[in-house]
Amino acid sequence: MTRFWLIKLARTILTLWFVVTFTFIVLRTSGDPVVALLGADAMPNEIEQFRVQWGLDRPLGVQYLHYVAQMATGQFGDSLRDHRPVLDIILERVPATLTLGLAAYLMAALVGIPAGIVAALRRGRLIDRAIMAFAVFGFALPNFFLGILMILLFSLVWQVLPSSGTGTIWHLLMPAATLGTFTAGTLARFTRSAMLEVLEKPYMRAAAAKGVPFGKRILLHAFPNAAIPIVTIVGLNLGQLIAGAIVVETVFAWPGVGRLLVTAVSQRDLALVQGLVLVIAVTMVLANLIVDLTYGLLDPRIRGGAR
Length: 307
Hints:
- Keywords: Cell membrane, Membrane, Transmembrane, Transmembrane helix, Transport.
- By secondary structure, this protein is mostly helical.
- It has 2 domains: 2-72, no CATH class; 89-306, MetI-like (MetI-like fold).
- 80% of the residues lie in helices and 0% in strands.
- The chain has helices at 2-29, 33-38, 44-53, 60-72, 86-121, 126-140, 143-157, 169-199, 202-209, 214-239, 241-251, 257-266, 270-298, 300-306.
- α5 (86-121) runs parallel beside α13, α9 runs antiparallel to α10 and α12 (257-266) runs antiparallel to α13 (270-298).
- The longest helix is centred in the middle third of the chain and has 36 residues, at 86-121.
- It is flat.
C-alpha cells in the first residue's frame, strides 16, 4: 500500500514539474514580454533597464533555477504588471471562481445524475430519448455560444437577470447554468451507461427474485456498483473548475481566476501566467488523487489490489 502511494506521489510531483518547466520555456521563447509590457515605442534604455530589474537579462537556465528555488520556498514571484506578489493576486480571485464552479457543479450533479438514472430505468422510452437529446445538446453546445444566447434572452429580451458582474445570486445564475450544462450532459450519459450495465447483472435479478423492493435495489445495489465510472467523470470535471471557467468568466465579466488568466496572457505577465497555470495543474492533480481514494472506498477489491 505504501509503495502504491509513493508511486502516485512521484507521478504527481513529476507532472507538476513538467507543467512548470513547459510553461516557463514556452512563455520565454514565444516573444519578448518586455516589449509587450512597455510597448513598441519604449526607448531601448528603458527596455534594458526593465530586463535587468526583473532578471530577464540573465540566461534562460539561470532564470529557471531561480524560479524553481523561489517555488521551493512557497513564492511565485511578483507580477510584472502590478508589482505585487503573484500568490496574493491569485488568492483574491479564487473565491469568485470557487463560487461559480461549485454552483455550476452542484447544478450539474443535481440534474445530470438523476436524469441518467431515470433514462436507464426507462430505456427506449420517450423520456429516455428526451434526456439523451438534452445530454447531447449539453456537451455539444460551446460555452461561449450558450452564454451569449442566455445574455441575449434573459438580459436583453426578457430583462430578468443581470448580464455581467457579481454581487448577488442573480448574477450567479446564468454563468453557473452555462458552465454546468456541459457537465450535466456528460454526467447524464455516463450515469445512464453505467446503470444499464449494472441492471443486467445477475445479482440484480437475484435481488428482484428475493423480493427486495425496487427503490432499495436501485439505491443499495445498482447505484453503488455503477458509481465508479460516475466518480471518474465527477472527479475529472471537478478538476476542471478553474480551467473550464475561463470562457464563461470572460463572457460574463466574472472576476475570477479564469478571466485573470486571459488578462495575464494578453499582457505577457510571465510570473502571473506561470502561477495560474500551476494552480490549474494542482487542481487537476488533486482531483485525480481524490478519485483514486474514492475508488478504494467504493470497491474493496481496488484496495486489495493496491495492497
